[in-house]
Amino acid sequence: MSRVLIVEDEAHLAQGLRFNLQAEGHEAEVAGDGEDALARLVEQAEHYDAVVLDVMLPGKSGFEVAETLRKKQNYVPILMLTARGRAEDVLKGFESGADDYLPKPFELAILIARLEGLLRRSVWMKQSLAAAPAKHTSGAGVSEGTASEEPTRAEKDTFSFAGKSIDFGELELRSLGNTIHLTVMEAELLRYLVKSAGRVVSRKALLGDVWGLHEDTDTRAIDNFIVRLRRYIEDDPSRPKHLQTVRGVGYRFVAEP
Amino acid sequence: MRISSRRKAIALWVSLGVILAGVAFAVGSGWIILNWREGIKVFLGIIFFGAITAGLVLNTIFLVREIRRNEQHDSFINAVTHELKTPIASIRLYLETLQRREVDEAQRREFYQLMLVDTERLMGTVEQVLKAGAMAQRKASRQRIPIEFDSVVRDCVEIARARYHLLPEQLDYRDVRTPGSMQVLGDPEELHTAVTNLLDNAIKYSPQGVQIGVDLEMPDDERVILRVRDRGVGIPKDELKRIFRRFYRVRQRGRARVKGTGLGLFIVRAIARNHGGKVFAESEGAGKGTTVTLELPRVLAEELSKQAAAESRRTTA
Known about the structure:
The complex is a heterodimer.
Chain A: E1 3-7, H1 11-23, E2 27-31, H2 34-43, E3 50-54, H3 62-71, E4 78-82, H4 87-95, E5 100-103, H5 108-137, H6 151-156, E6 158-161, E7 164-167, E8 172-175, E9 178-181, H7 184-195, E10 200-202, H8 203-211, H9 223-233, E11 243-246, E12 250-253
Parallel strand pairs in A: 1-2, 1-3, 3-4, 4-5
Antiparallel strand pairs in A: 6-7, 7-8, 8-9, 10-12, 11-12
Helix pairs in contact in A: 2-3, 7-8
Chain B: H1 2-34, H2 39-100, H3 105-137, E1 145-148, H4 149-163, E2 171-175, E3 183-186, H5 188-204, E4 212-217, E5 223-230, H6 264-274, E6 278-283, E7 290-297, H7 301-316
């Protein structure tokens, strides 16, 4: 059983969501606005396994709530809900730190599937946290500690280059003893770029394949993500070596330049 | 993201306009000072540079206005999107829940009730958008029949009490007129909409508890006056006129943000004007409640019969 916080000011939606999550066997609570949600998550440091976060809230918006949580180093998985479904809104949601995103009106089955996905991930994360001490003494990127529990996933989901290692399963990027926590979307974008290493990928392809947004919109919105990834993986983000811009086309990932 | 980049663009063009206006003014003044002895040059200079400066100032003002309107339109689209999609999301959620899960009878009833409320809300938004569109185009009401305005108001008050579950003293209706018929000429449906919108607003913007007074007055033979007084959030003085513009919404702070499309009072004003009347708001400021007054021209029974006679003469001729 997981504990889920629903942050939604529309009473009917909140009630319906709570009913369904409880029917799925979770413990569900409702916070009516962003301030209430932050009070529970940050000030009272209550533990939740996931947060369903509406964007258009009275007072602090969902974007602000997600940003504040991440700033306070709270990485509780966030599923964002919003009536605004334009590509830029979606990207803004991910940028503020959401892990997944659903436009309103959503399909109940999809909402539950996505939420279960996030909850599974948080279970993995807990397992890897428990195994973390053993892993760090062993040094390199391969996580032997979790191998006994989920061998295939742990082995498959890492990628190393130029002294850095990305662990897609645990959403971590490790370099020289430094560990950076990635959001799900950052990890997904990195994974896609790594998979097509050496090839140029267009912004539109990224938007379509990573975010599932097939729209004719301002695809430059993706640049903010690239800037952030560069800050993680480049020695000098203003002169990128791994994550190169190809003028007028898109981006190219090069593991060993 | 988009708003802030637009803000930057605005700042650039507005400051360019201001600087150009300043330069034109300075050059003009310089010209006048340098040539102040030569009458004709000074005269031409004043006219010429005056025209340029005035043009630039006007241009900047219109630019700012246009940008504001644009922003309001944006926030309107956002608000309407939200107001349309939220009830749909809720209805869909409950329908899927009923389809998917075992729900006991009491809960099932409750879900139906919630869906009905959401349907009403959806209907309200759609109606408002459609009405605002129609109002913006129509010059005068099509239908003009004599209506007892007090019965329209009484109707609306009854409906509002029922819809928002209000006690009679919370939505207090008082008829403080001198005896006599309260007839106006107009479209009953439109007048109904106008009064309902005023009541809805008063209720919506009273988050700390509804305490509304509805007064009907007839100060003279010419006018019928409806006053709706609430003790809600109030309106800052400088925004009292703007609230009747299309899409305009008072900027709200804090938690108790009220949702809406910014069309309600615009529709009221359009209806008032269509009927030859007017509407205005008064407030002591934020937090001190608001009084909205709707004034309509009254028609006397004698005039009506005269009009009817003229009408029948015209039709027989």
